[in-house]
Amino acid sequence: MKYAYVLTAIAAIASKVAAVGVSGTPEGFASSATGGGNATPVYPTSTDELVSYLGDDEARVIVLSKTFDFTDTEGSATGTGCTPWGTASNCQVAINKDDWCTNYQPDAATTSVTYNKAGMLGITVGSNKSLIGEGTSGVIKGRGLRIVNGVENVIVQNIAVTDINPQYVWGGDAITINQADLVWLDHITTARIGRQHYVLGTEADNRVSITNNYIDGESDWSATCDGHHYWNVYLDGSSDKVTFKGNYLYKTSGRAPKVQGNTYLHAVNNYWDDNSGHAFEIGSGGYVLAEGNYFANVDTVMEESSFEGALFSSDSASGTCESYIGRSCVANANGGTLAGTSTDVLSNLKGETLAEAAGASTDPAGSAGQGNL
Ligand SMILES: *[C@@H]1O[C@H](CO)[C@@H](O)[C@H](O)[C@H]1NC(C)=O
User: Fold this and answer.
1) What range does the record give for the signal peptide (predicted)?
2) Which residues make Cβ contacts (< 8 Å) with residue 303, sequence separation at least 6?
3) Fewer Cβ neighbours under 10 Å: the N or C end of the chain?
4) The model scores a pTM over 0.90
5) How confident is the model at residue 304, as a pLDDT?
């Protein structure tokens, strides 16, 4: 009897362990990311333990089953800031980080700023890690993640990253990648972030898939002073291939995304909802294939005045995509100014692992972000 009970208990534990892991497999450029693989899951209980698991040299599956609140872990700092967007209470204020106000906003009024120090620099993530959330309970509050300095093979799935000094530009980014390879970011919700929700820095980020995320731009403070966040997805780089698929971008007003610096972006089946400024900004070195996207209530789908890159967004001369990538491209819905026929984009993508494209969805909101695996 006792023996049978023990066996049952072991079986129960084994099935729980077996059930914990990354859900599904990555699509697109980072399709060979495996993260922590089948390492035994660990469940951090404190912010220190989470930082330690993320930053060490072990392959790890790290499961978040509660909120890790970094708001006060390093205390606050008071310093000088500036108000380039005005002094209304719904405008963001900039921290004078690295003398940004002094150097770039000499005409803006200065003001005092008090912010949480932990938010300024994200948690370092090492190679071979899976960071996953249980249900809707895995939240990192007040601090972001940094996947940088040669790190490779990282999966982040089904967590929320929230409340990083949202009133302050330079208050912190949610997810930073800079000099990395094979990063899959999936079903993440980001909300109330000071600076970028996603930022890929100027170093090579190689193969990245950003899929099914909810970028919630609603904020009480914004650089456009209208409740819509301006700093959303900034894809810089020197050799970056980014799959951006199935994401839901809500209440943004700019840089959603900004693409430049030898970055190949496959933007497919994303949904923009209520953008008061621009979605795409494509600078020099940005190569964008945009297909199957849906734009609902977007003021400017692509900012034409800053367009210096290359764009393919229309397969109207039918057979063009087929001849480069082996299938037809899918039309965008309400694409407006997002109109390009550059075959340079397609020739760069020839032979690459591309995500599939479905028709432009009219409601991906229900499948994006944390809790929608
Ligand atoms: C990541 O895992 C791969 C495969 O096991 C291994 O070769 C590599 O050294 C690991 N990277 C680090 C930084 O531990």
Assistant:
1) 1-19
2) 278, 280, 281, 337
3) N
4) yes
5) 94
How big is the chain, counted in residues? 373
Closest C-alpha to ligand 1, atom 13: 127
Which residues are registered as beta bridge partners of 82?
94, 110
Looking at the annotation, which residues are catalytic? 255
Using most ligand atoms within 8 A of CB, pick from 34, 125, 128 the residue to mutate for ligand 1. Answer: 128
**Is the CB of 127 inside a 6 Å radius of any atom of ligand 1?**
yes
Residue ranges of the chain whose pLDDT lies below 70: 1-19, 317, 364
Q: Residue 362: its pLDDT value, please?
A: 73
Taking the CA of residue 126 as reference, the ligand 1 atom at the shortest distance is 13
The residue among 244, 276, 228, 258 whose CA lies nearest residue 364 is 244
128 lines ligand 1 (CB under 6 A): yes
CA distance 329 to 341: 12
pLDDT of residue 314: 81
Nearest CA to ligand 1 atom 12: 127
Q: Which domains does the chain have, with CATH numbers?
A: 42-75+119-349 (2.160.20.10)
Substitution candidate for ligand 1 out of 127, 147, 181 with most atoms within 8 A of CB: 127
Sequence-ordered list of residues with C-beta below 8 angstroms from that of 89, at least 6 positions apart, any chain: none
Cα–Cα nearest to 281, from 294, 16, 273, 299: 299
The answer, yes or no, to whether any atom of ligand 1 lies below 6 A from the CB of 151, is no
First to last CA, the chain: 39
Q: In angstroms, how far is CA 324 from the centroid of its own chain?
A: 28
**Residues 6 or more apart in contact with residue 96 via CB below 8 angstroms:** 79, 80, 81, 82, 102, 110, 113
Q: 63: CA distance to ligand 1 center in Å?
A: 20
For 23-144, strand residue ranges (E) read 60-64, 67-69, 76-82, 93-95, 110-116, 123-124, 129-133, 139-141
